[in-house]
Write a structure and sequence with these properties.
The protein is mainly alpha-helical. It contains 11 helices and 2 strands. It has one domain. Strands 1-2 form a two-stranded antiparallel sheet. The protein is globular, with a radius of gyration of 20 Å. Keywords: Cell membrane, Cobalamin biosynthesis, Membrane, Transmembrane, Transmembrane helix.
Length: 320
């Protein structure tokens, strides 16, 4: 392992960090990712200028945002002499990078508002988690926005983070989440960000390539029944290539197939209607499907932790 940790230690620290995230949730004040977001906004304002060097400035901004903080996280782990202190540092880094409880806390209230037929509150809550326009969104459109966010961010905020933690410990999780955050902030194809954010988008695509496909496979495995698994697999293979994002396509198509509902379709971004391909198969999603999407993400988390612990136990037995 690049982290220098044994696999059994990695598995235990993964469980500990997920439990901390579910127990405490996000830090209310001074969250490191919030501070990083503020740094990213400052760099974008300073370096994103018109001209032939706009792409190069985007590369420089990415390096200035990510590399020093990754190096600092790595040095912090190396500087701690006691193994217990190192383990605590790795666990806290993973905890700060995870967003499992945040997904639950931001999305389940949308399902509750839709169950009360309170579209005004559902639109307000949904606007906090997606960049699309929700001012006149219907229940189906709000459900799609929330379910798609759960499925995609299950990969970005949970499974991709766990994947890079397994490879490179706490600094790996920090690196991945910073790269993912920059893609979320700079990776839009707007006139201002198209060239500047291109590097951030491509780097995130590379870091997310394997995690996204492992997430899609997990959604297939956890689909109900053999028919559900076959449907999720077929949706992944048939629909993902049509999606703009090489990683969101497999994740959301397999997830929609596992849920047995239709997602995707038209949505309003930055004042313009974007005609996106259909994802999944079955009836249109409704508010209750948000809860089902959350349960799929939660069960996938349990699957990943279970596999990690089982693999660690097997390695301990075979090396005993």
């Amino acid at each position: 392992m690049l982290s220098g940790l044994s696999f059994s230690t990695i598995a235990l620290l993964m469980v500990a960090a997920v439990m901390l995230d579910l127990w405490w949730g996000e830090v209310r004040r001074w969250h490191p990712l919030v501070g990083f977001g503020n740094l990213a906004m400052a760099l974008e304002r300073r370096l994103n200028r018109e001209g032939p060097l706009r792409f190069a400035r985007g590369v420089l901004a990415w390096m200035l945002a990510v590399l020093p903080l990754t190096a600092l996280a790595t040095l912090l782990v190396w500087a701690l002499a006691l193994p217990a202190a190192q383990a605590a540092a790795h666990t806290l880094m993973l905890y700060f990078a995870l967003g499992l409880r945040s997904l639950r806390d931001h999305n389940l209230p949308i399902a509750d508002a839709l169950a009360r037929h309170d579209l005004h509150d559902a639109r307000r809550l949904t606007s906090c988690i997606v960049s699309r326009d929700t001012t006149s969104a219907s229940e189906i459109e709000l459900t799609k926005a929330s379910a798609e966010s759960l499925l995609e961010n299950g990969n970005d905020a949970v499974f991709g983070t766990l994947f890079w933690f397994m490879l490179a410990g706490g600094p790996g999780a920090v690196l991945f989440r910073m790269a993912n955050t920059l893609d979320a902030m700079w990776g839009y194809r707007t006139p201002r960000l198209r060239q500047f954010g291109c590097a951030a988008a491509r780097i995130d695509d590379a870091l997310n390539y394997l995690p996204a496909r492992l997430t899609a496979l997990s959604y297939v495995l956890l689909a109900p029944g053999l028919q559900g698994k076959r449907r999720a697999w077929q949706c992944w293979r048939a629909q993902a290539p049509a999606w703009d994002s090489p990683n969101a396509g497999p994740v959301m198509s397999s997830g929609a197939g596992a849920l047995g509902v239709q997602l995707g379709g038209a949505a309003i971004y930055h004042g313009e209607v974007e005609h996106r391909p259909t994802l999944g198969e079955g009836p249109q999603a409704t508010g209750a499907d948000i809860n089902r999407a959350w349960r799929l993400v939660a069960r996938t988390t349990a699957l990943w932790l279970g596999v990690a612990c089982a693999a660690a136990a097997l390695m301990e037995v075979t090396h005993a």
